[in-house]
Amino acid sequence: MSESIALGSLSIFFMFLLYISLGVCLKKYKCSFGHEASFILIIGILLSWILKETSYYTGILNFLRFDDNLFFYVCLPPIVFASGFNMHRGEFFANIKIVIIFGVIGTMISFTCFSGLNILLKEIWPMRVWSGTTGKWSDLKLENTEIVLMSSLLCSSDVIAAVSLVSFKKEPALFSIIFGEGITNDAVSIILFNTVLQYTQKNQEFTAMSPLKITGNFMLLGLVSILIGIFFGLLSAFILKHIRAYSGNPVGEVMALFCIAYMSYVISEITKNSGIITLLVAGIIMSHYTWYNLSE
Predict the structure, then answer these.
(1) Does residue 130 share a domain with residue 18?
(2) Which of 14, 39, 65 corresponds to the end of one domain?
(3) Which of 91, 235, 237, 247 could bond to 176 as cystine, CB 3.0-4.6 Å?
(4) What is the DSSP code string of 237-291?
(5) Number of separate domains in the chain
(6) 71 found inside a domain
(7) CA distance 285 to 237
(8) What is the pLDDT of residue 282?
(9) 72: in domain
(10) Among the residues of the chain, which ranges form H helices?
(11) What sign does the CA torsion over 287, 293, 295, 296 have?
């Protein structure tokens, strides 16, 4: 078991090192073909095939098994916090109208179109599903609430690939618009999903009033998530400004900053709000206010 864990850890950090090295080489030699993510994907497939052909495959597979709690409470918070804290706020807020049009209104339009068209399609054209086990077709009966829940996932877009192809130094406005649309789209999609999920868990029927109820819950959940983020962001600025004992210990300052941000994420999740939105807002507030209360 210990040998499998060691090999699994070795595989993970080897991939990390390879990913960083490929990115550095592509940037240094200005390679116009490919992206480090594409190369690392190919290498990952080859590495998986090699491990599968060895006797360590089962042990490593158990070690690398995906755990949603590990992802949402360990891996995700630092990424979201860094996105908010390191955001180019000037360009972002200068293009806030365009960001809102694409990220908020565009996402809501996509959600509405996906939901409406799928519900309409279900009524006029019965859906069927193929079973790979039996090799037969069967009728697929979806409830309207299931279709709406699925549509809330489909309206989320991936901005990572687009952002990686645009340089902030060369195109600051375009980069900020794409990045802002991406994080706003993710935020709206997450709030939509959580709202629809809470609504479907009540076992209510989807009626003409359902969109209005979902919209109301959506606005409430988003507002509360934002307010929690603002509160903890301002709290960190207040603590580091008035408790100057932190200024003598840079490690303590940084850890206090991150701990307060992480607390905002967990509290938002506990209260059934969006921890990602809360943490993103907290990161933006901290970069605008708390940053200036840190020691040199």
Answers:
(1) no
(2) 65
(3) 91
(4) HHHHHH-GGGGG-HHHHHHHHHHHHHHHHHHHHHTTS-HHHHHHHHHHHHHHTGG
(5) 2
(6) no
(7) 9
(8) 93
(9) no
(10) 2-28, 36-52, 57-63, 68-70, 76-85, 89-94, 96-100, 106-124, 144-154, 160-164, 172-200, 210-242, 250-270, 275-288
(11) positive
CB-count exposure of residue 125 (10 Å: 0-12, 13-18, 19+): exposed
Q: Left (φ > 0), alpha (ψ -120 to 50) or beta: where does 70 sit?
A: alpha
Q: What is the pTM of this model?
A: 0.71
Q: 64 falls in which pLDDT band (50, 70, 90)?
A: low
Q: Are residues 275 and 189 in the same domain?
A: yes
Residue 1 has pLDDT above 60, yes or no: no
Question: Are 59 and 155 in a shared domain?
Answer: no
60: confidence class by pLDDT, cuts 50, 70, 90: low
Residues in the chain: 296
Q: Does residue 19 sit within a domain?
A: yes
pLDDT at residue number 198: 72
pLDDT at 231: 96
Domain that holds residue 149: 83-293
Look up tokens 């080489």; give the residue: 25
Q: Do residues 18 and 88 share a domain?
A: no
pLDDT at residue 208, as a whole number? 66
- Please state the rounded mean pLDDT for residues 120-143: 81
Do 61 and 89 sit in the same domain of this protein? no
Residue type, 55: S
